[in-house]
Amino acid sequence: MSWISAGFPGLLLLVLAYPAQGSVAPPVDEIRGILRMELLPEPTAAALAELSGADFERALAALDPHAVWYPPNVASRPFSLSRSLGGIGAELEVSGGRAWLLPRQGAPLAAVGFFDRAELLSVDGHSVAGLDADAIAGLLRGESGTRVRLLLTQRDGRHRYDVRLVRERTRPLDVELWQIGDASVLRITDFVAGRTRTALATTLAQLPSDSGRVVIDLRYAGGGDLYEAIDAAGLLVEPGTVLGSLNAREGAPVILRSASNFATSREWILLVGPSTASAAEIFAGILRYHQRALLVGQRTFGKCHSQTERRLGDGSTLRFTNREVLLPDGTSCSGNGLDPDVRVSDDVLWDLEQVLRSLPPQSDPVDPAPASTATDGG
């Protein structure tokens, strides 16, 4: 899967890819020393000895499958392109030679009626089949006020939509609110430090008391800031509730508790799937353990570890695993992920209207499954 970050307003393209090292050699001795002292789990001397410039990526992955080394002058965060460009207001995912757009609330693509991901077939008559994310971004990019024609398909692929949009500047919301039938759908695609919890509380406060079922869509949430996700989960449980714990190599586990909550008796439904990972999994696992949410969808990714970044002496950056997050019952979602309480097929999972139709009636209580049966696996 390829996600590319292109920050031109209205077209949000996220990239998560290992940087090419080229001719730049990593500072192996410095990296080895950091991992020896801080990597979780503690590495063996033999594994550290394998870390060398000859096959650095393979050896680093063997030590920590989530570790990444970024050469000097290569950003460890998704980068942004020209901010002067307008866009269509969507996130682009490219995988297996196919491209999908996820509309963002209040942006051009959403304004013409799209609220869930759609497959992109062509841009201004140019097929995108087999193109990489950079090439597709080049077709979608344009100045604000210019027009673009998209050919899209949804659901079973039999229905095609010839859409004409005017590019415009947009700013994505941290928590989007979509009204689909009688359901209020809150979509979170990233847990952003200092923003998502506040945005969630503000959005919930705007819902009328008779707004019906509230669904939190985490199908596209690949992670984000760990503490932000835990704090956001704390909104939906009683103050003082144990939210989980953080384990590092040294010292006792740090127990995390909720500080304040959003008073409500609503029924929370969380939509999850294989793209739901890391911070989003922890958010979901906490709420299900405390019987505040029902998980609907498919098994989540399975990563309950926390990474940190360390700037190295040569200006490069090392991201590595240094903490494990345990759910309130002491288990981890790493390895096996979280199994949903209500499972849906792949065809249903990526069609929001069908997912909502598959939900059990509100009057039918469903006992949440155990938060996780997985053990630490990364």
Description of the molecule:
- It is built from ten helices and 18 strands.
- The protein is an alpha/beta fold and 378 residues long.
- Strand 7 and strand 8 form a beta hairpin.
- Helix 6 (196-206) packs parallel to helix 7 and helix 7 (226-234) runs parallel beside helix 8 (279-289).
CATH superfamily of the largest domain: 2-enoyl-CoA Hydratase, Chain A, domain 1
The CATH topology label of the largest domain is 2-enoyl-CoA Hydratase, Chain A, domain 1
**Taking all residues together, what is the mean pLDDT?**
85
Distance between the first and last residues' Cα: 19 Å
Structural class: alpha/beta
Report the uncertain regions: 1-21, 78-85, 364-378
Number of helices: 10
What's the CATH architecture name of the largest domain?
Answer: Alpha-Beta Complex
Shape: globular
Give the number of DSSP strands. Answer: 18
Q: What is the radius of gyration?
A: 22 Å
Largest sheet: 7 strands, mixed
Order of helical and strand elements: EHHHEEEHEEHEEEEHEHEEEHEEEEHH
Residues in β-strands, percent: 25-35%
Summed up, the domain count is: 2
Main CATH class of the largest domain: Alpha Beta
